């Protein structure tokens, strides 16, 4: 005997037991519609659940960027509103100060000049939208860019890779090594300096590029900056090498900026021979190139390997060579020898005109950062009637609004010049 499965309808199956002669002996009826329906419905539920999850996943992916974009817009508008409110508050404070009220912020400026000392305050804010001061009467601004090392030490978390830094600097100090552009050297140097105590010098270089653009915006005709003194040669050898390599890189970057902005870059260096020859050549090339820029929007004097005493001695020796024994040397003669650039010997009349148009060799303001209150052998002869402003911030921390406050403060000063 053997069982045989027989489908006698679409919703039932029958089992029939057949004997050897073909006669059916038994029959079993099995309904199937209920089971098939349950399986089909279960499959439909699973399919519906899958597509529901898929739909909401796609919706979530589309919604997240939209949500963050909207959130960013809300934050942006809140910031704009806060800046407007801050500007109104500052305006009200200034109005109150004019009536006799004084509000002190957390950042001091100490000033000196014309025989009296005063204290002012500058609020630290890094907005590029600071109000442009009107009629500030500052044609020549001098800056002692102090505090790069302190800034670097404060933010350092890594140790200096001495061997790798020396290898990079070797490209500048070794004449036998070929140079393949400034950019690869700068990128490698910036990577090695990152988060070390020497990185403050790199950040200070970036700040100078930004500061020059701010001076152009505020119609300052001449900027003189103290980059490296003759006394700085006595610093640790690695630091000097890093500084010289940064100078090489930033001088080239300043050249690119000068082409776009119409800047005449002059290098003031009484001890010029102490600078590595590759850097001396790029200094001469940049000065010769940028003196041809027209229109000229600003003159930037970069004092490198500079000493105020050496400058005076060089001026006296230069006048001695030209001296007519029947003509005494005057203050004007000596002043004409101040701020002599590395290529001025070939452009005497032009550079005399440049200095005259820039307000003369004597700056109206000298700004020193990092809280120190001394000249440090900078512009000793030129600063007879210069206003001195000493700022607690380090040089990398100075921002555009600090310059605005400085110019506004100078405009309010009573400058008598001994009268």
TrEMBL record:
Q: Gene3D superfamilies, from UniProt?
A: Decaprenyl diphosphate synthase-like
Q: Which GO terms describe its molecular function?
A: ditrans,polycis-undecaprenyl-diphosphate synthase [(2E,6E)-farnesyl-diphosphate specific] activity
Major enzyme class: transferase
Supply the EC number(s).
2.5.1.31
Alphabetical keyword list: Membrane, Transferase, Transmembrane, Transmembrane helix
What the entry lists under InterPro entries is as follows: UPP_synth-like (IPR001441), UPP_synth-like_sf (IPR036424)
Which GO BP terms, alphabetically?
Answer: polyprenol biosynthetic process
Q: Where is this region: Disordered?
A: 94-132
Q: Where is the composition biased (Polar residues)?
A: 108-130
Enumerate the transmembrane spans. 48-68
One Pfam family named in its UniProt record: Prenyltransf
- Give GO cellular component annotations, separated by semicolons: endoplasmic reticulum
The Swiss-Prot or TrEMBL record describes its family as follows: Belongs to the UPP synthase family.
Q: What is this protein called?
A: Cis-prenyltransferase-like protein, putative
What is the species of this protein?
Answer: Trypanosoma brucei gambiense (strain MHOM/CI/86/DAL972)
């Amino acid at each position: 005997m053997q069982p045989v499965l027989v489908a006698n309808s679409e919703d039932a199956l029958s089992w029939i037991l057949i004997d050897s002669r073909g006669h059916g002996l038994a029959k079993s009826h099995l309904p199937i519609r209920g089971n098939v329906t349950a399986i089909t419905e279960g499959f439909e539920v699973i399919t519906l659940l899958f597509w529901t999850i898929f739909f909401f996943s796609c919706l979530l992916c589309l919604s997240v960027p939209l949500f963050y974009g909207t959130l960013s817009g809300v934050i942006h508008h809140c910031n704009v509103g806060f800046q407007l409110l801050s500007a109104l508050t500052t305006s009200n404070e200034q109005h109150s100060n004019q009536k006799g009220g004084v509000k002190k912020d957390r950042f001091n400026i100490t000033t000196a000049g014309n025989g009296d000392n005063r204290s002012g305050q500058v609020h630290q804010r890094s907005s590029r939208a600071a109000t442009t001061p009107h009629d500030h009467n500052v044609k020549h601004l001098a800056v002692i860019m102090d505090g790069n090392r302190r800034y670097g030490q404060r933010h350092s978390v890594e140790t200096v890779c001495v061997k790798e830094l020396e290898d990079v600097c070797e490209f500048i100090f070794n004449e036998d090594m070929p140079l393949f552009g400034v950019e690869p050297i700068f990128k490698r140097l910036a990577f090695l300096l990152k988060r070390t105590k020497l990185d403050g010098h790199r950040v200070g270089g970036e700040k100078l590029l930004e500061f020059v653009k701010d001076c152009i915006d505020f119609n300052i005709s001449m900027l003189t900056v103290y980059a490296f003194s003759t006394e700085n040669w006595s610093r640790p050898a690695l630091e000097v090498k890093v500084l010289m390599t940064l100078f090489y890189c930033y001088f080239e970057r300043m050249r690119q900026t000068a082409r776009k902005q119409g800047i005449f870059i002059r290098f003031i260096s009484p001890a010029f021979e102490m600078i590595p020859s590759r850097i001396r050549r790029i200094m001469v090339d940049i000065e010769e190139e940028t003196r041809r820029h027209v229109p000229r929007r600003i003159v930037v004097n970069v004092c490198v390997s500079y000493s105020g005493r050496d400058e005076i001695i060089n001026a006296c020796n230069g006048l001695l060579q030209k001296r007519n024994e029947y003509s005494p040397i005057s203050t004007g003669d000596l002043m004409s020898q101040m701020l002599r650039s590395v290529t001025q010997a070939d452009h005497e009349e032009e550079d005399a005109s440049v200095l005259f148009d820039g307000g003369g060799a004597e700056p109206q303001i000298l700004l020193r950062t990092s809280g120190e209150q001394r000249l440090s052998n900078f512009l000793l002869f030129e600063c007879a009637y210069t206003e001195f402003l000493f700022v607690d911030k380090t040089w990398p921390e100075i921002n555009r609004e600090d310059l605005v406050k400085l110019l506004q403060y100078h405009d309010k000063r009573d400058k008598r010049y001994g009268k």
